Amino acid sequence: MKAIxxxxxxxxxxxxxxxxxxxxxxxxxRGSSYNAYLIIDEKITLIDTAKESFKDxxxxxxxxxxxxxxxxxxxxxxxxxxxxxxxxxxxxKCPHAEIYTCMPNGLKNIPKFYGDxxxxxxKAGDSLNIGKRTLQFLPVPMxxxxxxxxxxxxxxxxxxxxxxxxxxxxxxxxxxDEVDYSTLMYEAKKYYANILMLYGRQAETAxxxxxxxxxxxxxxxxxxxxxxxxxxxxxxxxxxxxxxxxDEAIVVYDSMWHSTEKMAKFIVEGxxxxxxxxxxxxxxxxxxxxxxxxxxxxxxxAVGSPTLNNNMMPTVASFLCYLKGLSPKDKNRLxxxxxxxxxxxxxxAQVEEELKNCGFTIWLDxxxxxxxxxxxxxxxxxxxxLNK
Length: 388
Ligand SMILES: Cc1cc2nc3c(=O)[nH]c(=O)nc-3n(C[C@H](O)[C@H](O)[C@H](O)COP(=O)(O)O)c2cc1C
Prior knowledge:
Layout lengths: L3 E4 L2 E3 L2 E3 L4 E2 L2 E2 L4 E3 L2 E3 L5 E3 L7 H9 L9 E3 L5 H4 L2 H7 L4 E5 L2 H10 L4 E4 L4 E3 L4 E6 L9 E5 L4 E5 L18 H16 L3 H12 L5 E4 L9 H12 L4 E8 L5 H15 L4 E5 L5 H9 L1 E7 L9 H13 L7 E8 L4 H12 L3 E2 L4 E4 L4 H13 L1
Parallel strand pairs: 8-9, 9-10, 10-11, 15-16, 17-18, 17-19, 19-20, 20-21, 20-22
Antiparallel strand pairs: 1-2, 2-7, 3-6, 4-5, 7-8, 12-13, 13-14, 14-15
Helix pairs in contact: 5-7, 5-9, 6-7, 8-12, 9-10, 10-11
The protein binds flavin mononucleotide.
The site of flavin mononucleotide (FMN) has 18 residues, from helix 8 and strand 20.
């Protein structure tokens, strides 16, 4: 396993997780990578590590450039184990190295992960001279853990952004101009939606903190390194974190006997007649992590469930639980609930309640239809949307 030079004396020494398909519930259909970077300077510096199970691959790539015993500094931009898990394995090779982590939370928490090692805390404005180069630390708390930080190298104009701007995308290629642009941007959007959407304010702060930096390369902690499309990924992050949505709708439902499904189709029809593009998703066929990705840039959301044993269907509950956790709590997002029922029909109000808990504005009274909808009832649905 060889290191890949991304700039003179700066190497990607990460690992590729080709077969990763589930990252704590986020479906990662294209795998991922855990990117680490080795800087050869007067002080040899390793930026981030990798999941513990990939430690041999990481050490192999480092060893293709230098003996890991020579590492002086390890920068831990984020404590989560996919980036920090190989710290003990690396420290076994270079026991005198110093580990830099963000203050206060990184420094406070890291001993619970890796015991008593040689930790140094850094804060906003701190920098570390490593020889010809300097590393400046930019804490980005809650993007997406309390200890998260970016590390910037002004001499090289590289931002080591850890989870920021990352994508779960496994590839033997390392740079944005080498891979398919729409796949790359879709995976960056999916990553933002599933990991960072609830931290929009923190993302905005992070963007402001980097606005005055000259950044030619964003060396991410996952996936592909940005060098050609730096402006584009910054522009998209600005859109995503400010809830700059399109006048488009997403309709999500489950259905046992197709009645709620019929309603869903006439909801899409109503949006289409109104000139609002809408996409329809059956929760039996679609993964919630794909649906929140679609939701990210759409203004309208309609969620439907028939009543099952006095409740909404578990698939719908799961989707709403996930959405509520990630929700940007944006009042400009417009929502409503719908569903078919047999007698009590409790599911529809439950769905509406969860949409309120997501922080959305309820745009339409919920739509309830007893048993199988008639043609007239279905036409009424699309007309209600059209006339709103
Ligand atoms: C196992 C089961 C449990 C149900 N429980 C309820 C219930 O508690 N309350 C209710 O109003 N309807 C209940 N229903 C009726 C369905 O909500 C009704 O048939 C509805 O039209 C189904 O919509 P769908 O075709 O979208 O699945 C139940 C149906 C089934 C099959």
